[in-house]
Design goal:
With 297 residues, the protein is of the alpha/beta class. The protein has helices at residues 15-20, 48-56, 68-79, 98-112, 127-142, 147-157, 171-175, 183-186, 213-227, 244-257, 270-276, 293-296; strands spanning 3-8, 25-27, 29-33, 36-40, 61-64, 84-89, 118-122, 161-166, 192-198, 204-211, 235-240, 262-267, 281-286. A six-stranded mixed sheet has the order 10-9-8-13-11-12, sandwiched between helices. It has a four-stranded parallel sheet with strand order 2-1-6-7, with helices on both faces. Strand 11 (235-240), helix 10 and strand 12 form a beta-alpha-beta unit. Helix 3 runs parallel beside helix 4 (98-112) and helix 5 runs antiparallel to helix 6.
């Protein structure tokens, strides 16, 4: 019996990596911009370009939870074709109200398809970090790993994905409704460029507050240098928001210095861009420093 991998459109990958993941079913989500509703993901009506253009125009955004009916319809289609399901969920931080709706859908589907396996795992991942984990999972599925073994691998290795975000502005973090306790530490400071990480529960955390984006960039890439474990995976993703040329220059520079790494770039989509804003950069890699040492104590 075959199985399909399902993910949310919250993951960020470039087109080549998405092509590698062509067997994966991507679940779209809705974004409210002002009073209008848009869909981001397959067959959606919101592009990354349109998102950042509206954001720079001062529009107010909100991510909406994926409805129970959406889950039911998508999962039911594949279960009815005798597919098992491995759903690699984005961190509950991304769509916090979605979990209850997911559980309601799964309860109904498990009653209807008692002979099918429906496995759901929180990746604790965001954006390109989530994408990196999913891309590697698809490789392992293609190599013949069954659903139980792959689910176990995801659970064992998901916290080995390290991801950092260099933020150019505090504006979008401050206006967002998601609780971020670290905001009190930075929102009243002048010209602070925070470096954000993702903790072991999949939440954005403040790692460092620096004066000036060059210092923040240096701090982010010094973490890559200290923590990257190529034996876990040589793929490194540089994420960018409305600053492709800068990301391409960083890619060339790092590729020259680290010839054993496969360094690619990918756009940061609305799910993370709603918090980080335009002209932000990010990095995701397999490593040992998902959290700073001081955050572990």
């Amino acid at each position: 019996m075959s199985y399909r991998i399902f993910v949310n459109a919250t993951l960020d990958l470039n087109q080549a990596m998405l092509d590698d993941c062509s067997s994966v079913v991507i679940i779209p989500f809705q974004v409210q911009i002002g009073q209008e509703l848009y869909t981001y993901g397959p067959n959606g009506n919101l592009s990354i370009y349109e998102f950042y253009n509206a954001q720079c125009s001062g529009e107010v955004f909100k991510l909406l939870p994926i409805d129970m009916s959406v889950y039911y319809e998508i999962f039911d289609k594949w279960l009815s074709q005798e597919n098992d399901i491995l759903y690699l969920m984005s961190s509950s931080f991304m769509l916090p109200e979605t979990i209850l709706k997911l559980e309601q859908s799964l309860e109904e589907l498990r009653k209807k398809y008692k002979e099918r396996k429906i496995v759901c795992i929180d990746t604790f991942g965001i954006s390109i970090g989530e994408g990196l984990l999913v891309w590697e999972a698809v490789k392992k599925q293609t190599e013949g790993m069954d659903i139980e073994a792959l689910a176990q691998w995801v659970q064992n290795d998901r916290l080995k994905v390290c991801q950092w975000f260099a933020i150019n502005t505090l504006e979008h973090l401050v206006q967002d409704e998601v609780e971020m306790p670290f905001l009190k530490e930075i929102e009243n400071l002048f010209r602070v460029n925070p470096l954000l990480g993702v903790d072991e529960a999949g939440k954005l955390i403040l790692s460092e507050k620096l004066n000036g984006s060059p210092k923040t960039m240096y701090s982010m890439f010094s973490r890559l240098e200290r923590g990257w474990k190529p034996e876990l995976g040589n793929k490194i993703i540089i994420g960018y928001a409305d600053c492709k040329e800068y990301a391409e220059n960083l890619q060339k520079s790092l590729s020259y210095e680290w010839c054993i790494a496969d360094i690619v770039i990918a756009e940061l989509g609305p799910a993370i861009g709603i918090y980080t804003g335009s002209e932000s950069l990010a990095i995701a890699y397999w490593g040992s420093n998902r959290l700073d040492d001081k955050k572990r104590r």
